[in-house]
Design brief:
alpha/beta; globular; Rossmann fold; 5-stranded parallel beta sheet; 5 helices
Length: 139
């Protein structure tokens, strides 16, 4: 099964979920445009209020989260580790019982085990992390 199929399966889980409203996709493979796959798949499903944001500022991201009711947002960052304010906002957002909309966060590089806050995000939202296999050990 390809990475695109995996992304679509996670999106289906997000759409069907009654108690989870955020999907974090940590996709290392640069040959797969995960945010485009997510956006187009959601569009094909006819979801309401679909919007896409690439590398939004904390101000823009915060505005989008306050207006998420009835919407589906696909937000992408190359490296979420470089955006601590976004991580703080995401950590607060995933605690909201029902914001009324769905959020898909896509990052190419994100060490989501860095902090307790990031581990909390992983526990609260639907989460998929695709890593490359480690290089073989030299003999």
């Amino acid at each position: 099964m390809g990475l695109e199929s995996t992304i679509k399966q996670f999106l289906d889980s997000l759409l069907a979920s009654k108690n989870r409203h955020t999907l974090c996709l940590n996709i290392a493979d640069t040959s797969v445009n995960a945010e485009h796959v997510a956006f187009e798949y959601l569009k094909s499903k006819g979801v309401a209020g679909l919007a896409e944001h690439r590398e939004p500022t904390p101000t823009v991201f915060g505005e989008q989260l306050t207006m998420i009711a009835g919407r589906h947002l696909v937000v992408s960052f190359d490296d979420l580790d470089k955006h601590p304010k976004i991580i703080d906002m995401l950590a607060e957002h995933v605690k909201v019982p029902d914001p009324g909309g769905k959020l898909v966060m896509v990052s190419r590089h994100w060490d989501s085990d860095n902090t307790e806050k990031e581990r909390g995000i992983r526990k609260t939202c639907l989460f998929y992390q695709q890593n490359f296999a480690p290089p073989p050990k030299q003999k």
